[in-house]
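1st attempt posting a full record on here, be nice pls
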Amino acid sequence: MHRRQLLAAPALLAPLALAPMLAPLALAPAAHAEQRFASMSMFIPAGPGGGWDGLGRAIEQVARQAGLVGTFQFENIGGAGGTVGLPRFVASKRGRGDALMVSGSIMVGSVLTNHTPVGLQSVAPVARLTEEADVIVVPAGSPIQDLRGFLDALKTNPGGTSIAGGSAGGTDHIALGLILKSLGHSARQGSYVAFAGGGPAQAAILGAQVSAGMSGLSEFAEQIKAGRMRALATTGATRSDPALPTLQESGVDVVITNWRGTFAPPGVRPEAMARLVALMQELHALPAWTEMLKTRDWADAFMVGDEFARFLDRDRAQTEAVLKEIGLA
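the predicted structure (as tokens):
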């Protein structure tokens, strides 16, 4: 899934040839490990070419090159932030110890906003792999010069400080709600302008149609580098860019990222679940995976087992609280 954009058109995708985004990457030769799976079914609850699909293809490329998995079969079914494909994965892959689904923070909010009975609690968390922090930007000509100016504007006139971002209820929207709450306002008081894609949001920011914008750092990086946008801060626990402070280090106790990871279907036996977790641990330890993260500009957010399960509980509680206050859950 591309950032927080909700994909609508279901699609089936099988061959790697339909994933050109990974084709240019030439990884360093890797020593072959013991094969863990002869075949793996990889389910992507989104259309081809987005962030979830990209992560699935990256797992395939590194795992096959290292000899951890023989072959992969991909299935893409997009729509409604992953909530169209999720029930299909639960029903069709139940009990299979050779199946993984790629998902992430978008699905947490989508399940709540769409009021779907099947959510991430219906599947088993295997590993969190990557994350990307949001960046707060303003157009180059904005009177807001720094983070303090942005926070002052929000605190003084939250309804009059419009913020462009991704789909309503997504990570950008939740981040704004958390910032407002930290300033003593209700998340509902924000003036959030949702866009279906990064292009329209960028146009609105560059045209000064909004006061500021929020999205993944990589989405605005080119405009920031060209001097057309001014970056103020990021929303991660650590700095994504050495030159940019985080909200937390600036006195705003907000940490939120767009994370992605893998999940197993329900009904998988404990020994089969242990094999899936071990596969992700071996993959993460490979130099080729480190190279993949660097090349794709993905932050390493590796987490497995009970730690990942506890993180999911916290993330869902935080997301639900903000979405209810906004009126979307």
